[in-house]
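During the no-cost extension, the postdoctoral fellow (Dr. R.K.) reprocessed legacy sequence entries with the updated structure-token encoder. One reprocessed record is reproduced below for audit purposes.
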Amino acid sequence: MTTTCDTATNPGGVLHEPVLEWYAEHARDLPWRAPDATPWGVMVSEFMLQQTPVSRVLPVWERWMEEWPTPAALAAEEPGEAVRAWGRLGYPRRALRLHAAARSIVEHHGGEVPSERDELAALPGVGEYTAAAIATFAHGRRHAVLDTNVRRVLARIEGGTAAPGASLTVAERRRAEQLLPQEPAVAAVWSVAVMELGALVCRAVTPLCERCPVAERCRWRAAGHPAYDGPARRVQTYAGTDRQCRGRLLEVLRTSEGPVHRSNLERVWDAVEQRERCLTSLVDDGLAVQVGPSTYRLP
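Re-encoded structure tokens follow.
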């Protein structure tokens, strides 16, 4: 797919053709990008891909779509089954939110994933990015879709910096919107093409500039690849954290066919105070239910 590179009416015109041609040749064959992918399949992928690599999402997405190919199929299940099927993708509250979104789609949209960004944003667990992504990738709407990869690519090509800041700015959004092709269907492909370019070539740590289709137009490359000089980025740890503890406890609940006695939870985490705090937080978040003085289960 190509576009007319009219820089007078669209500042990104000179970038569109090489990026779209690169994508046509190098895009990964992912099921939620297939021509027969449903809006629901796209929506499930967007929930799962949040802070989770494609390699981990693929097998879970495939099992999920076999089990629940429509919002109505998932909505008919108990929330705990969504958590169980989520497996070890991490951030399991996403499973609860996706389940709640499925019930909302059935109740308010006749079981069909809505196509308008505002309607999508009103669903449980759907934020600004996810609403734009579903509207764009599932329904071919013309929206700027700004994930980490897209922000990095545009910061380098247009801004001349190694990485964007921690928070999305008005200027970033305006730049992304100005670069969108005018035709909605082409804009949708452009959005996923830039995302793929960031994932495979314009990588955060080891960019492959020699493989970039727009390397000659990249301001960051022309400036000699200056290092990022913005505020220090927080490095997330995992070992020993509450997040790890919650994951261990939830794994016991997820792999059990029925209620779990507290003694089984105690075996997977020795630090008593932390374990109790995390168990309480799982109940508070709706990821676990206490069904007796010493027993717990999925919701």
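DSSP finds 15 helices and three strands in the chain. Residues 1-9 have pLDDT under 50 and may be disordered. The remaining legacy entries will be reprocessed before the final report is submitted.
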